[in-house]
Every structure is written in C-alpha cells, then in structure tokens.
Design goal:
This protein is of the alpha/beta class. It is 35% helix and 13% strand. It contains 15 helices and 9 strands. A 5-stranded parallel β-sheet has the order 1-2-3-4-5, with helices on one face. Strands 6-7 form a two-stranded antiparallel ribbon. The two termini are 21 Å apart.
Length: 332
C-alpha cells in the first residue's frame, strides 16, 4: 500500500531511486537555519531512511548545530547491522527517537512489510535500545495480525521501547462513498501474496464510521471536499517537507500526489497545477528561492476556491478537512 511500488510488486515507473546526500543537506540547511529548528524527522514517501547512505551523517550534522532539537525517523527496521544502529543511538542521544513500523511478529510482519526479515528487525531494535536509543513501536492492525496486538505490546515493553502504538490504519478509507474492504498484494514477480483485510471493528479507523454522515450531509465525498474548511496540520506546526529529489513542498501529502503509479501520465494530478517548474522547487538552490515561487501561498489561497474543479487543492481537503480525518483517527 506504498507508492514506491505497485501493490508490493514492480517499482513505480514514475520515480527515480533518489536520495538526499550530506552535501545536499549542507546546501539546503545552513547552520543558522538549523539552530532555530525544533525538530527534524526523516520519513520518506517512497523509501526508508536506513537505505540512504548518509542518514547517520545527516543526523550528526543537525546535532552539531543544534544540541536541543528533536531528531527522529520512521523505519521498518529491517536493514543495516548492529554497529550502525548503535552509532545512530549515540548520534540521536536523549533528544531523539526511532519509530519502528513493525506490523506483526515473526510469522506476520512480513505479510505487509514484504521482504523484511524478522530476525533482522529484532536484532536492530534491540541493538538500538541497548545502546541508549529511545524507541517507539508502531503497529498497523490488519485482520492477519489483530490477534497479536497485545503480545507485541508486551514484547515492546520487554525490549525497552518507550511507547507502543496500535494504529487503526486509514489505508482502507478511500475518497469514494464506500470504504475499501480488502487489498490484494503482489510480489516483485507480480504473483499474488497476502490479501490485506480490515481488522475487527474495535481496531478499525473511526473515520470509516463517519462516512455515511458525511455523505448524508454533503451528498458525496467530492462535494464534501469542495466545501469543507481546511485546518492545515503542517501550517499550524510550521513544517516543511523535503523530498528525496531535494524538492521543497508544504508536506508529505502534497508531495505524495506527484508520482502516482496508476497514472500513465503522472502530471494529470492536480498538484502539478501548482508546480509549473519543478526545478524551481529544488531546495538545493536555496529555500528562499523556493518560497519566492509562491507555491505555498498559492496552495493556501486555493482553499478559498468554490470547488476542487475550480482550483481548490483536493489533497488538502482530503488530509486536512476539518470533518473527516483518517490520519488522526489512526491514533485513537
């Protein structure tokens, strides 16, 4: 269910295997900029920080220029060796955390996290924690792993995780009237693997239950998106998102609309109406130049348009509309 590949199979044909280097970060984030930051968080739309070559050196660069800021990342935890994880713990120190996305135990985690070996996850999590790292375990609940939630919670405590978060996934909530009941995963060869299904009701995202009310009030989800006021999550927090290509956008959700694999032409997505020149968003040329393009102001101005057809950015309505929030409901 990730845009990097096609239902777990072939790589998204619209993306390059890009990554931010330490040199890129030197260009984007000057020391004075870093000094005023509260947080830097690594979580790729299309990959995992542990796969990038310079991850630890980039964290170290931020830490060198800001002793107090919070450093963190989200990962499946399935790569690198013990020494790498121990080094990461030393760099993050007490002002940082790793969020391990582990969706099951030895017999179930790989069903969603395809290709991730349980023994590697356990070794890496324990090495990080034993080296003084602060860890959180995030657990997406599906039908196939719902019976292991409490066992995983107990294991997280035994290993020394500071928090265990059982997430009521929003991946079965769509922009259509009906919620999605299941999702067929495939492997790299295109062969069917697991059929992902919603968990039992107590573990389901509460936004699903709100769909009939929204439809009754507005007539359809599209009409809801046209009319709903937007309370921008990232504007409230003063956030900025840098893609693996080095492009600066308001958030991961706006960036996430750029390369949907199911489009033959990815540029049909509405976000491209706000990106006439992709190179102008290259943060390596200076963040101020990106801001001067007006993309952030133009996106915010679109929220006052009468409908998405008239230019209101739909991804903002889906993620930050005030009456329907599958993202926020994951944590309740």
């Amino acid at each position: 269910m990730c845009d990097r590949n096609q239902n777990g199979g072939a790589i998204n044909p619209h993306i390059n295997l890009d990554e931010l280097t330490l040199q890129d970060c030197h260009k984007i984030f000057e020391p004075d900029f870093i000094k005023q930051l509260k947080t830097m968080y690594m979580c790729g739309n299309l990959g995992d920080p542990i796969s990038a070559r310079d991850t630890i050196r980039i964290f170290d660069y931020f830490r060198d220029h800001n002793e107090k800021m919070w450093l963190s990342m989200n990962t499946n935890g399935g790569a690198r060796d013990r020494e790498w994880w121990q080094m990461l713990a030393r760099v993050l120190r007490n002002a940082g955390t790793v969020i391990f996305s582990v969706d099951g135990l030895h017999d179930t985690n790989h069903l969603y996290r395809q290709g991730v070996v349980w023994e590697h996850v356990e070794m890496n999590m324990r090495a990080f924690i034993e080296a003084g790292g602060r860890a959180r375990w995030d657990y997406l609940i599906f039908e196939h792993n719902q019976h292991q939630v409490e066992e995983a919670r107990a294991l997280s405590e035994a290993w020394g995780c500071e928090r265990f978060v059982a997430k009521k996934t929003g991946r079965f909530v769509t922009a259509n009237i009906d919620s999605k009941e299941k999702h067929q995963a495939v492997n790299r060869k295109g062969d069917k693997t697991v059929e992902l299904k919603k968990p039992k009701e107590e573990y389901q995202n509460a936004a699903v239950k709100k769909l009939p009310t929204i439809i009754d009030k507005y007539g359809s989800m599209d009409k809801y998106y046209d009319k709903v006021p937007i309370q921008c999550k990232v504007k409230d927090e003063g956030n900025l998102f840098i893609t693996a290509e080095g492009l600066a956008l308001p958030c991961c959700w706006t960036a996430g609309r750029m390369y949907k694999w199911w489009h033959k032409d990815p540029y049909v997505e509405q976000i491209w109406d706000f990106i006439p020149d992709k190179q102008a968003l290259d943060a390596r040329n200076g963040l101020q130049k990106v801001f001067e393009t007006g993309i952030f102001d133009n996106i915010e101005a679109s929220w006052n348009k009468p409908s998405c057809v008239d230019g209101k950015l739909k991804v903002c309505a889906t993620k930050c509309g005030i009456e329907f929030d599958p993202f926020g409901e994951q944590y309740k």
